[in-house]
Amino acid sequence: MKIALITGITGQDGSYLAELLLEKGYIVHGIKRRASSFNTQRIDHLYQDPHEGHVNFHLHYGDLTDSTNIIRIIQEVQPDEIYNLGAMSHVKVSFDSPEYVANVDGIGALRLLEAVRILKMEKKTRIYQASTSELYGGMPENKNEKGFYDENSPFYPRSPYGVAKIYGFWITKNYREAYGMYACNGILFNHESPRRGETFVTRKITMAAAAIALGKQDCLYLGNLDARRDWGHAKDYVKAMWLILQQEKPEDYVIATGQTTKVRDFVQMAFAHVGFHIRWERTGVEEVGILESVDEQKYFEATGRKLNVNALNIKTLNETSINAEPLTLNAERLTLNDLTPNIGDILVRVDPRYFRPTEVDLLIGDPTKAKTQLNWEPEYDLQGLVEDMMRGDLSLLN
Ligand code: NDP
Ligand code: GDR
After folding, report:
1. What separation in Å is there between the alpha carbon of 356 and the centre of ligand 2?
2. Which residue's CA is the nearest one to ligand 2's atom 36?
3. Centroid of ligand 1 to alpha carbon of 267 (angstroms)
4. What are the pLDDT digits (tens) for 180-213?
5. Which of 237, 258, 327, 381 falls between 20 and 30 A from 55, CA-CA?
6. First-residue to last-residue Cα distance in the chain
């Protein structure tokens, strides 16, 4: 049985990758940080009680800023494969704690590589480094002749996060070249899922669209509506991580869908899932998203909400009923308007707090190398991703 060690196992990707590797028969070890409250919600379903016999899923306390514990865990676990997914992964937050991000996202990668070297496990252990499309920074002049970013496009990071990750990228490549290690970068473009952290834009949107449809929130506040991203599904992307470590030769790969979409269009797709049509309108300097119309059938199907049929019947039967609340509704008025925001309501507003000091305007990746060399093929398209996320958030909030 192969042994894998995953840093960042409590995160979005770590949880999907752990599932995938367990399915493939691996023994999976993960590093989690000690926190004052539970931070293992994404992997709780994988927990196996060691008191009930042999287990193939193990968690270790640790931190990428602590070499001593990294060396000790690698020595104990003797992994065949290490997936370095641990990171402070929020681009906007990286402007607030740049030194910490450099330490975790940059030097953290070095600590793992160096631990493997110190322990003389270079020939045994393969290393995957979670590199990112943020390395490109969205500089238009750096796209290839087809208009995409690929493995040969120059880098120009635009945030402390991107700058820290560029160190992770190069140190991984350097250890491969200097010491012959099987160490690879997956340059992954944005990937999302129902398990995505709540402060990334897609999840923020799907949670808000679900909450607004269920009458639990009034308005969604966003930053740059015109940023474009190449969004895929995390489930597809962890398969690529595994494939990257199964090749004969260690190489770096771009993982992307090859499509790019504006934040504002993602907003419209998410709200469309609950039957809401959003129209954009400028009011002075502000741009807002207004509820223009509702597809009632879609709304009721997606939310599982029902018209209050009892109230309707009783009201029809007994015009003079003195019973309270639901019965006071007039039968003709008992429509969608009683249950949802009204047509014309502002559901989306722009809040400059979410703007970044330097923005990455447009990302689009060319996955040709991964498709031809790894035979990687994603199962989800953007519509499938949005639906999966919306279903997840509706059932979470319902
Ligand atoms: P998440 O933010 O969901 O997960 C990050 C993980 O890293 C969490 O388990 C977190 O622990 C852990 N972590 C944070 N700081 C430390 C630390 N000091 N020591 C050890 N572990 C730490 O990210 P994703 O799952 O979305 O991304 C996985 C990796 O891929 C990250 O490196 C990210 O930068 C990179 N990436 C992500 C892309 C995406 O679109 N999702 C695209 C390209 C790259 P805790 O749960 O305790 O916070
Ligand atoms: P990104 O993801 O920065 O691409 O990094 P995020 O979802 O945070 O932002 C995408 C784009 O949306 C714009 N935006 C907003 N973003 C957030 N978070 N909140 C908002 O309210 C909002 N409004 C508009 C942003 O300005 C940006 O242009 C993600 C992370 O997973 C990284 O770890 C990873 O490396 C890259 O993707 C690839």
Report:
1. 10
2. 190
3. 24
4. 999 999 999 999 999 999 999 999 999 999 999 9
5. 237
6. 42
Per-residue pLDDT tens over the stretch 326-359? 434 444 444 555 667 889 999 999 999 999 999 9
Supply the pLDDT for residue 176. 98
Q: Which of 35, 17, 218 is nearest to 130 (CA)?
A: 17
pLDDT of 57 reads: 97
Q: Is the pLDDT of residue 144 over 60?
A: yes
Among this protein's residues, is 76 annotated catalytic? no
Residue 111 clears pLDDT 70, i.e. is over it: yes
Q: Which residues have CB under 8 Å from 345's CB, separation 6+?
A: 218, 290, 291
Mapped onto helix, strand or coil, the DSSP state of residue 244 is: helix
Catalytic, out of 7, 10, 125, 132: 132
* Domains of the chain, first to last: 3-188 (3.40.50.720)
Query: Any idea of the CA torsion for 270, 276, 281, 284, to the nearest 10 degrees?
Result: -90
Q: Which residues does 293 contact at the CB level (< 8 Å), separation at least 6?
A: 277, 343
- Closest ligand to residue 37's CA: 1
Please, which pLDDT band fits residue 270 given cuts at 50, 70 and 90?
very high
pLDDT of residue 129 exceeding 80, the answer is yes
Q: Give the strand pairing for 126-132 and 183-188.
A: parallel
* H or E element at residue 307: none
Q: Could you tell me the CA-to-CA distances from 209 to 44, 206, 231 in Å, in that order?
A: 27, 5, 18
CA 92 to ligand 2 centroid distance, Å:
8
Is 134 one of the annotated active-site residues of the chain?
A: yes
User: Any residues with Cβ below 6 Å from ligand 1, and which?
Assistant: 7-8, 10-14, 31, 33, 35, 39, 63-65, 85-89, 104, 130, 132, 188, 190-191, 197
Known catalytic residue at 156: no
User: Which residues lie below 8 Å from residue 69, measured CB to CB, with a gap of 6+?
Assistant: 61, 62, 63
Query: What pTM value is reported for the model?
Result: 0.94
**Is a pLDDT exceeding 70 seen at residue 319?**
no
